[in-house]
Specification:
5-stranded antiparallel β-sheet; Alpha-Beta Plaits; homodimer; alpha+beta
Chain lengths: 477, 477
């Protein structure tokens, strides 16, 4: 990298850095980075920066800071809320972390793993498994999503109920600040109270305060037993009671507890090849539960059978199947994981990633479903997701025969309708997807006053020129 | 509270607020608030504010902000590092949270509890237990320490290995900012990604960024089984191996895993009435392990016996005793909990609350003990504490017959000696006690550069007049 960068013009200086680092300039090469995978957002950028080391990230950021060039950090570009794609404004660049994908260290005794921001989640899971450990974060986009983005958005997914969000799986961070300074915080410590917890500020900041370049992740002993059950339940309340029953039986064993509606399951069977209901009769409510234990001979199958038997007697379940093999387990999970694709194939749909206190999930599902059906007759509510942590994807699929664009024109009405009920129940308008571009206009109403003022003060303090991921998280940012 | 406060002089305005709220002015009443319990720090304050509600805290802070009066927030005043006592400078007040001690809400189904900052930890534990739940935070000062201070210092204690620090037990916070603004963040949500995680910034900030007035805490199912074992082990390495053996047997069951040296145990037996070694022969290294499970019939005793038998065969333990009753369990734990008192009774001592990656604990103990003995011949290293999370109290007791003041004059040499080794092993100079006044001069060396600059920028952004707990955490703050 040349030493006299600061003497060059902005674009020449960028070229001097980016040339050797693999700059892509042809518009056709930049295209995949300019739009999100849902096709909701497209913006512009004058270049793509592809640094391969922390020092290169630092040099890129310092140069951009000097010239007031805005930076959009990008990992696997799997954001649900347009958090990783540029807006349409001039003088900005995308900085991809994809080349920073090394595993720097795995310590199977300490149960920690130090990895770079560009490592794909499935690869992180594999590396942990190769060392006899578990990295428990698990979600739909895991084949593309990268560690830096997962931390920057505090990703959740299926295992939050047992292991917490991405935040709880992180011990230390390396971060490049908006002035190019580097925070060397890759500490492998369970306890470290030495000043403000900066790492927790960057987790969930969606790249607006700096760029996470590497992280120390927590590992866990690999499970020795796994039991998976699909249950047909008579109501949303019964689903909640069943969760409590499993939690009371063995709090630490509940790895995942997912709710699915009969509507959503019907869409899966109708649109996804090779899927079918493995129970006798279709019902309106289903639960998928995963139990795991690291203890040998934990007897989870007996535990599950005991719990399900008691639930059957109490009328909390109508039918259930326990997976008899890894293949059957995968096919049960496929019913859950194909929900987004099935909705997409069924028609235009609007996603609501909301959360409420766990006890309010049944009421939230009922009230939102009724209100949405009333608002758009014939529309199909498809609530599904993480009942065990209170996070339900309260999605709505268009009525049959309606013009998709006419339905999507109601997107904000639909979100407002759901959000009003969620707010009434003490919930949040974004549980695990973050704010990105999609939800910045909700921040004032939900987080306004002292809270938003403090966020703005922190943003101004760490990024006074506003060059880090502009337009994301903060309204008017 | 009068409406025209802003027309009064600072002290008159304070009197107007504080009079009705129970201001103490007589110096003899203020005295207990001016010094820490260790007697290391004494400062001054012109008044003690005792607000009983969030609104009163807000009014007090707004008034102080207007007049540039510095505020020292104080809970149970159990800081080990002088974090809750005032410095000797004029124009400042202590704000006690002791009157804000209500339990606002307990939800045993959602497993959350909303409490005010002045609630004492043992009371929080009791309230959780009354609802059939567990609030797992547990540490020596639990009979005095208050929730606000425990969160402000991100307290650790014995159960971090299983449940995490105070940070991980917190879902939401209510905070009064340095301008008197209130963050209403008492959300009872497991997932909520809506902007910067401000709550994590106030946890561990030691009252320098605002005052935590209330918190939503996580609860857990009460354990149905508890097994406690005291083990004599041949070396520090054997203690670590035993930890790994228990963790591999059942990761979720290890509630606490504490190391104690023969030296420290000897001091307990010699100075604490009613204590004795419940094993055949004294050795140089001991481990106290607690296993718990919320599952009925978890069979933890069998598990413990199996693990200990295997460890005996491998030479990792020399002897062990399993508690046969709650009384015996308490007496085993007493041997651990009396360590600080026994050291105090033995002579002057210097405390080092340090952490390293768990795998480095044996090397840290050995190297520090040797270096300290060499530095001060006859001095007695007393390492003890939380091996399972890498946090050892690497304390040093004076040589017999040495003048205590002469020994204490070496305090900084002793800390420097330990810290150099800890740093070499990738550790931290403050694991769970925080920075307070004692360790601000270590911040520049350990967290200097971009990290400390970012902390300073955040402090300046949220507390531009520097009125919140001056002199704590940040050097020169």
């Amino acid at each position: 990298m040349p030493d006299d960068l600061h003497a060059l013009s902005p674009l020449d200086a960028l070229r001097a850095i980016l040339g050797p680092a693999g700059l892509l300039t042809a518009p056709e090469d930049l295209a995949p980075y300019l739009s999100d995978w849902r096709g909701l957002y497209t913006g512009e950028a004058m270049a793509l920066l592809r640094p391969a080391s922390t020092e290169e990230v630092s040099a890129c950021v310092a140069l951009c800071a000097k010239h007031g060039i805005a930076i959009i950090p990008q990992g696997g570009n799997t954001s649900m809320v347009g958090g990783a794609t540029p807006e349409s404004r001039p003088g900005q660049v995308i900085l991809s972390l994809a080349r920073m994908n090394r595993v720097r260290e795995v310590d199977a005794l300490d149960m920690t793993m130090t990895v770079e921001a560009g490592l794909v989640l499935t690869r992180a899971q594999e590396v942990a498994a190769e060392h006899g450990c578990l990295f428990p974060l698990s979600l739909g986009a895991e084949g593309s999503a990268m560690i830096g983005g997962l931390l920057s958005t505090n990703a959740g997914g299926n295992t939050t109920v047992r292991y917490g969000n991405a935040r709880e799986l992180m011990l230390g961070l390396e971060v490049v600040l908006p002035d190019g300074g580097i925070i060397h915080g890759l500490r492998r410590l369970r306890k470290d109270n030495t000043g403000y917890a900066l790492r927790h500020l960057f987790v969930g900041a969606e790249g607006t305060l700096g760029i996470i370049t590497a992280a120390v992740l927590r590992l866990f002993p690999a499970p020795r037993e796994t039991v998976t059950a699909l249950c047909a339940v008579p109501s949303e309340d019964a689903a909640l009671s069943l969760f409590r029953r499993f939690r009371a039986a063995d709090e630490g064993a509940v790895r995942a507890f997912e709710y699915m509606s009969g509507t959503g399951m019907g869409m899966v069977f109708a649109t996804i090849e090779g899927t079918a209901l493995p129970l006798s009769n279709p019902v309106n409510h289903y639960v998928l539960v995963d139990l795991t234990a690291s203890r040998e001979g934990a007897g989870l199958r007996t535990l599950a059978e005991t719990v399900l038997e008691a639930a059957l007697i109490e009328g909390e379940i109508e039918d259930a199947i326990l997976a008899e093999s890894e293949a059957q387990r995968a096919s049960l999970w496929r019913l859950r994981e194909e929900h987004p694709e099935a909705q997409k194939r069924t028609g235009a749909n609007v996603k609501n990633d909301v959360s409420v206190p766990v006890s309010h999930v049944p009421e939230m599902i009922r009230r939102c479903s009724e209100a949405l059906r009333e608002m758009i007759p014939g529309s199909r509510p498809v609530p599904f997701g993480h009942l065990g942590d209170g996070n339900i994807h309260m999605n709505l699929v268009q009525p049959e025969g309606m013009e998709p664009s006419a339905f999507l024109a109601r997107s904000h009405d639909i979100m407002d309708c759901v959000n009003a009920i969620v707010r009434d129940l003490g919930g949040s308008f974004s549980a695990e997807h973050g704010v990105g571009r999609l939800k910045t206009d909700m921040m004032e109403e939900w987080r306004g006053g002292a809270e938003l003022a403090a966020m703005r003060a922190i943003k101004a303090a760490l990024d006074p020129r506003g060059i880090m991921n502009p337009g994301k998280v903060l309204p008017g940012g």
